[in-house]
C-alpha cells in the first residue's frame, strides 16, 4: 500500500533493552516467530526475511527491570501481510497457552501481548484503506471487540503457524510521553508528520502519506512522567526511515529550527523527542 516504503517516512526498526537476552530470544523465536540474523553475547538482530532486521534486542550492563510510570515504549507493532497470518497466529498463541488481548480499531485488527520483560507487542493487520473513514484530516479509530469468528474463517485448513511471514513490517510505535504540546511541535514541525487523530487531550496519532498512524504518543503514565533509567528494560531507540537525502537534510534543518539537538554518534544521526525517546534518522 506504500505506507511503509519510499516516499513515505516510517518506522523501520525498534531496539529493545531486555533483562535476559537468552530468555528473550527464546520467546521471540518460539512464541512470536522471528529468526536471528546476527548475534553477540549481549545483543541480537531479529529478522523475518533473512536479510533485514526490524527488531533488535540488547542486554545492557547492570540491567534493571522495567520501571513503571515513565516515558518510553507503550508498544511496538508488527504488521502482518495477510488476514490469514493473523488468524494463524491466534491459533498458535492459543495452542501455546499465551494470554493476549485484542481489538478492532476500524482501520486495523490487532492482538496485544507482553514479552518476558513486560514490553508490549501489538500484532496486527490493516483493513483496506478504502474502508478507512476520514473526516477532513482525521481518520476514525476506535477500540471495539475483535470478531474472532469472522477472523478465523480466513485460516487455511491444515496450515499451521510457521513463524512470522517474510513480509512482516514494523507497522508503528506508540510511546509514553510527558506532555503533548511540545511533543506535537517536535513530530509535526520537526519531523514532518501530520496529526491524523486526537484521542481527547491524552493521545495523538501521527503519520505521513495518509496512514492511520506511524507514531502514537500518549500521557497515560502521567503528565510530567520522568525518563526511564539508561540501564532499565524498555525501548533503547527506534529508527525513522526518510525518503532521500533531500528529505533528511530538510528534516535536520526543521529540527534545528525548533531547537532540537541532532547528534552525530558513530556515523548515526540521533535526536531525542521532548520526553527523551531516542530516534535514529536514516535514509
From TrEMBL:
Q: What is this protein called?
A: Glyoxalase
**Keyword Membrane: yes or no?**
no
Spans through the membrane: none
| Gene3D superfamilies listed in its UniProt record | 2,3-Dihydroxybiphenyl 1,2-Dioxygenase, domain 1
The protein's matches in InterPro entries, at most eight in alphabetical order, are given as:
Glyas_Bleomycin-R_OHBP_Dase (IPR029068), Glyas_Fos-R_dOase_dom (IPR004360), Glyoxalase_1_CS (IPR018146), VOC_core (IPR037523)
Q: Which organism is it from?
A: Oceanobacillus zhaokaii
- Is-annotated flag, keyword Nucleus? no
Q: Which UniProt keywords apply?
A: Metal-binding
- What domain of life does the UniProt record list for this protein's source? Bacteria
GO molecular-function term, one example from the UniProt record: metal ion binding
One short Pfam family name for this protein? Glyoxalase
The chain positions of domain VOC read 10-126, 169-283
